[in-house]
Design brief:
Helix content is about 40%, strand content about 10%. The protein has about 260 residues and is α+β, with helices and mostly antiparallel strands. α3 (about 85-95) packs antiparallel against α5 (about 130-140) and α6 (about 155-195) packs antiparallel against α7.
Length: about 260
């Protein structure tokens, strides 16, 4: 990013000259800027405070799409990135929000600080009050050169990414649970159809493919076991594994059994 240079001796000297005997920067008077509609409450800037901005992520239907869909807006802190810029660039950014906007977002991308990674984005939306206060802070102290060599990722930005990935995982878990339920229903429909003509009184089938005697057991509505014969049991097992495979979750096994209601209400 243009302007991310080494700190000059003059900038360091000016910064240190503003410190009080406690090692902190002394209080300064600031004139309030004319705030735009996008401005937050104006406060005098002190190091460590965030400089707020918003990144808007876009989804385009194709390369001809000039009206993309906004899929998310992420609030970010860009203070450490501004620290790497000379003051004339900060002034240009203050006066023209489009100036260096892409460079700042690219820097956030490289830090892994954006929830949508490398998805297309719109112009960076700056908090006018924050950027004015930051500019005043450096101008009044003569900090015209960059005051940091590199931009340090803001913890708040990284935490937003962590929360977003956590939310994504929760959504995937819900989707997986729903798909598992649909899969089980589909498997039961297959088994139910295979058992359709096995016995006129059949109400429940118990499938346990590794059972030492009866890999398939059939019961009537009263819970009485129905003897369908070993040959028929083997035929049913062969049909089930032919269509659904031998996964224990499907055909029982390993000490478990698959119970299927054959008579649907």
């Amino acid at each position: 990013m243009t302007g991310m240079t080494d700190i000059s001796p003059a900038a360091v000297a000016a910064r240190e000259a503003a410190r009080t005997h406690t090692g902190q920067f002394g209080a300064q008077e600031h004139s309030a800027p004319e705030l735009g509609l996008d401005s937050g409450p104006f406060l005098a800037y002190e190091p460590g405070q965030p400089i707020r901005a918003t990144v808007e992520f876009h989804d385009y239907a194709d390369h001809r799409d000039d009206e993309p869909q906004t899929i998310e807006r992420q609030a970010v802190d860009i203070a450490s990135i501004l620290d790497t810029m000379p003051l004339d660039q900060v002034k240009e950014l203050r006066d023209d929000p489009y100036a260096f906007s892409d460079d700042i977002v690219y820097e956030l991308q490289s830090q892994g600080a954006l929830t949508q990674g490398y998805m297309p984005f719109g112009p960076l939306e700056l908090d006018a009050g924050d950027i004015e206060a930051y500019y005043d802070y450096r101008e009044l102290r003569g900090l015209t050169d960059p005051i940091a060599e590199t931009a340090t990722p803001a913890v708040s930005n990284l935490a937003a990414v962590a929360r977003a990935r956590r939310d994504d995982i929760d959504k995937l878990r819900q989707q997986i649970a729903e798909l598992e339920a649909e899969k089980e229903q589909a498997e039961e429909r297959v088994i139910r159809q295979i058992f359709a003509d096995v016995h006129p009184n059949a109400a429940t089938a118990v499938v346990q493919i590794d059972h030492h005697r009866h890999p398939v057991e059939v019961y009537n509505a009263a819970g009485d076991w129905l003897n369908i014969g070993e040959d028929e049991e083997q035929r049913l097992v062969a049909e089930i594994t032919k269509h659904l495979g031998a996964d224990p979750a499907v055909v029982g096994g390993r000490g478990t059994a698959r119970v299927v209601e054959l008579q649907r209400p």
